[in-house]
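Peptidyl-tRNA hydrolase
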Amino acid sequence: MIQWILNLFSTSKQETNSNSMKKFLIVGLGNIGAEYVNTRHNIGFKVLDFLAKKEGIQFETVKLGALAKYSFKGRAFFLLKPNTYMNLSGKAIKYWMDQENIPLENILVITDDLNLSFGTIRIRQKGSDGGHNGLKNTNLVLNTQQYARFRFGISDEFKKGKQVDYVLGDWNDAEQAALPERLEVASEIIKSFGTAGIEITMTTYNGK
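Tokens:
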């Protein structure tokens, strides 16, 4: 009887600690479907898949996307891959922000960027959409540009008029070989964002 009571209090304490964890929503932008899995435009999905595999966590199909939950150093990370397609990404982001009561300053959105050379990292606290349709919709739905974004360079090595084919094309052999190291750095950035904060993360990782 005494042990049962002790277990009850122990369980209650664990639930309280879990509920009081500082929460972060990490959103990888991409398109659903097998044809998009290895495309440059899906780097947001690829980063989250890499982290989930590394930490041994699974994505579950949820409303408006796939979600994996990960705890690290007293923080709760919600890894979200929207299933709304790129152009409607904001709908899923807003829903899960509200669902988990996660403040705007604890949101990090991961996207591809044509203006950066392959694998170059640029983290910002806020900013315009830069022509990226996923960010454009997110800005519209959230009615703000004041959220952190992590841009992953995919370069602009395409001929005139071939941008769409390039962005929705697969990584070339050289890029594919270099990706694991870049994805490792990306997973460190996510953890740093939640534990060290955006400013230290920018100082540590921008340009690397």
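The longest helix spans residues 173-195.
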